[in-house]
Description:
Chain A: It holds the Pfam family CO_deh_flav_C. Chain A: Residues 1-178 form the FAD-binding PCMH-type domain. The complex is a heterodimer. Chain A has twelve helices and 15 strands. Helices cover 33% and strands 26% of the residues of chain A. Chain A is globular, with a radius of gyration of 19 Å. Chain A folds into three domains: 7-53, 2-Layer Sandwich (Uridine Diphospho-n-acetylenolpyruvylglucosamine Reductase, domain 2), CATH 3.30.43.10; 63-173, Uridine Diphospho-n-acetylenolpyruvylglucosamine Reductase, domain 3; 179-287, CO dehydrogenase flavoprotein, C-terminal domain (Enolase-like, domain 1, 2-Layer Sandwich), CATH 3.30.390. In chain A, the strands form four sheets. Chain A has a five-stranded antiparallel beta sheet with strand order 4-5-10-6-7. By secondary structure, chain B is an alpha+beta fold. Chain B folds into three domains: 32-40 and 494-637, Aldehyde Oxidoreductase, domain 4, CATH 3.30.365; 43-145 and 213-260 and 267-290, Alpha-Beta Complex (Aldehyde Oxidoreductase, domain 3), CATH 3.90.1170; 304-479 and 641-791, Aldehyde oxidase/xanthine dehydrogenase, molybdopterin binding domain (Aldehyde Oxidoreductase, domain 4), CATH 3.30.365.10. Helices cover 27% and strands 25% of the residues of chain B. In chain B, strands 3-7-1-14-11-12-13 form a seven-stranded mixed beta sheet, with helices on both faces. Chain B is globular. The model of chain B has no long low-confidence stretch (mean pLDDT 95).
Amino acid sequence: MYPSKFGYEAPRSLDELSSLLNRYGDDAKILAGGQSLVPMMKLRFAAPEVLVDINGIPGLDYHREDPDGTLRVGALCRHVTLERSALLAAKHPLMAAAAPLIADPMVRSRGTMVGSICHSDPQGDWASVLLALGGHMVALGPRGRRTIAAGHFSLGPFQNALQPDEIALEAVIPAPTGQRSGTYLKLERRVGDFATAGVAMALETSDGRVVRAGIALTGVGPSNIAATEAAQALVGKPLSEESIEQAAQLAAAAAQPRGDHRGSAAFKRHVVATFIRRGLARGEAVAA
Amino acid sequence: MTQTAPVTPSSSQALDEIKIGGLGSSRLRVEDSRFIRGRGNYTDDVKLPGMLYMEILRSPLAHARIISIDTSRAWAIPGVRLVLTGEMMAQRNLAWMPTLSYDTQAVLATDKVRFQGQEVCVVVADDPYIAKDGCEAIDVEYEPLPPIVNPEQSAAPGAPVIRDDKQGQVDNTCYRWEVGDREATERAFAEADVVSKLKLHYPRSHPSPIECCGSVADFDPATKKLTVYMTSQAPHIVRSAVALIAELPEHMIRIVSPDVGGGFGNKVPVYPGYVHSILASILLGKPVKWTEDKTGNLISTGFGRDMYLDGEMALRSDGKILAVRMHADTDQGAFFADAQPSKFKIGLMHSTFACYNIGTGYITAQGHYTNKAPGGVAYRCSFRVTEAMFFQERMVQAAADDLGIDQAEFRRVNLLPDDAFPARTPFGFLVDSGQYDKCLQIGLDAIGYEEFRREQAAARAKGRLLGIGISTMTEPLGAGNSREYDILGIKMFDSAELRVHLTGKAILRTGAKTQGQGHETTWAQIVSHELGIPAADVVVEEGDTDTAPYGMGTYASRSTPVAGAAVSMVSRKIRAKARKIAAHLLEVSEEDIEWELGRFFVRGAPERGATIQECAMAAYSNMPDGMEPGLEGNAYYDPPNLTWPFACYIVTVEVDPETGVWDVLRVVAVDDCGVRINPMIVEGQIMGGLTEAYAMSNMQFQTYDAEGNIVGSNYMDYLIPTAWETPGFELHEVVTPCPHHPIGAKGVGECAAVGGPAAFVNAVLDAIAHTGVRNIDMPVLPDRVWTALQTHQDVSGAPPVRNG
């Protein structure tokens, strides 16, 4: 691989990182797992002046639950950590379903959830997961921390809401208000291929009724799409064939796919609806 | 596979052939010791003092006129040593070069670019990063022209002429070719009860070896000798081609193919990059390395297939095939650059239906220039036999369906019986042996054909879609005999040279070039079989034209049929001389000498003998009066015919009716490749071929959009299966020794890649037979299956890909 010439900084603390981002601004690019950035640099689609490698900053590789049940995933938490997490397996069915479907084992061992969300590739899986769970990102900049809701984080393909001097510190998933269930279904032509279509489904039920629902779509629009109306169709009542079918139809309508060598727009919409039926109706959604 | 030791008299002191690593021994691959330790020596490992690095600037457009090229910014970058343009090449009469198919190919574009990825400029610099920077600093102004991405566009009236560089070229026709008996075929069709028709496209697939192309050219200004280390499957052809193209004396050219990291036909042609590095080295007087990157390899080098079929079969209602008529259109890309036998413009396409008695047939073919990368015959295909057999087996399934006859039974009716050989096909091949029914039956029994049909019906009742696909075929491997096969006029023989040292150890060199096939292991086994020298005592060397005997290289599964036969023949020459030495040592006349593995003995007195090692020692220390010292020789082998391996592949699948995704349930392979030299390597070849067959049927292809942009220019878009997707394989064998090969072996490397794809596709179509859909083009992607299920119409995969 022969990328363009670039500088390299390896801060050892968040303070040092902040001052580097302050100094380089737009010219800097943060290197976490590098599983999207490095291939882009290899192809010279990306040619940052400076790579700021955050792998030497201690304490960012966590994923942990606050006492109230809020889940926090740090900027250096690798996919593989989430894939093998007992915490997720026990309490976060959607995340546990999505983690092993991220790319391939090599990418999972290096890449990070936060980095993947920052990359804002509409075919990225984690952004849909965060949308479906109603999560947010925590950004750290010279003016301190701020939260950015999942729905506002991605501005379009490969564009996020971070300022040049900000870093995404963690992804946060709020505590559930009911019993969690959910799953992630993805159609890919091969392990590691970008999704032809993917659907993240998250439900919280209480007393036999759905109290919160989130549905988000991968690979069928310029960004990951929160299918809000589809999710809303499930809320306030027990899960039924009718409500699931309604959600499937609404989610398919919310998709904005383009036909390409992975399939026609009609096929992709059909896959979205099929996955919702499967994920919710056929017991593929795993209760936590 | 079980081994049976030859029955020998109890007095025999013959060596146990399996123990010494001879024929039939699954000895471990000797080359793997260095490969798995990272100690291979590939072209990119070659580092010479003062070496410079080359990078190619490629065209971003498929078809455009070059208005201007400004290289001044590149020259200004510190560390840039040379920038070559087409104009500079033209001044040396090197802007164009001849191809191995008697066409011409641009070395660097002068007038127009004709495909996306075409070589436009070259930068040589102190390191590869600077060379790449140099390429980015070149400003090329293009005037876009309408791109052509399929034969239909190519042949349309008023289509822009891509090859306006060629005198007399008024359209985009690359070649026309025909074979067979048109009138007899027409008569047969007139008498047919049923005519079965099928149209399909075999997509463009890239060989994608792990190691891309590359070369290190080293011209020594003092000695005027040119040494080129390069990734070639056929180094001798390259030496001759360089001698002819560059007008350098052939004895001053040395081509060295070090370890080659996979070829699959990708590394037979002579690519512009090789020529650039050679010219740069001559101009600069320094070694120049070119290492192609993955994208460069995928978008510019020899691909396979991209062929369209219009096939018809004349059938009698009892299932008998009366005649076959086919028309094939090939998308050749911008240059006709195939490395294939000169006489056959569409390779060995006419080997189609060789295992069936089809009465008569007629094939026409037309090649089309398009704005795509040149090629067509690469990729484990033995010169388009892949398409020939895929079309055949897809047509066979369609015909069985049209007649309402079971697909296995339809094959039984039409396969050549065991007593039919030798059989001349309607297209001129002589098929010399086979046990087709036995092969098919073993496959059907292994898969449990009748039981699967019952299971399929039961599943169907529950809405599940199961399917079973069969592919049976014989294919011509091992080009070839010199009457019919040549490249650039050079006959397609091969060669071996064997030197037995005084201590009985030996070095063998051949004109072939291993690139993963395991020659270093298997050639030694042939020597071991012929001479009784343990295989571990034979070192095998290939790829250096200064030391190896002249040969046509390794592709088209030709190594064992041709070079392997030469290894046998040279070993027998050595044995003949050793026999004379043995007679001398044992003080009897040569007529009284008998041979058993590893040893000569006196007839009637078997305890008196001389081992091959004792004979070797005597060849240097105690030869009979008047005998030339030494124990070495060479053999050039011109095979009397191709070899005809046969195979039966059966695949079962389940199709998800909602998503179109299909999973492979089982794959049964029955291969008859004659005598197996190293059964383990043969099985590896078959499993590799089946993996590629699965890949092409399921996911792996290159296509183009309407602008001529390639889809599949990197390994994120060009999908090759991983261990996760690849199904398991159940292997079986039938052994029908090749009647003319010295040890009865046949080619095998390509069989499964050739015969396999149709079995997968037939299985999917069988699973959705209720829709009446006759064809879904490969790769049979989920969306294509879903579309077929929705529309009950055939699904074409031909470019351009539909976006939006």
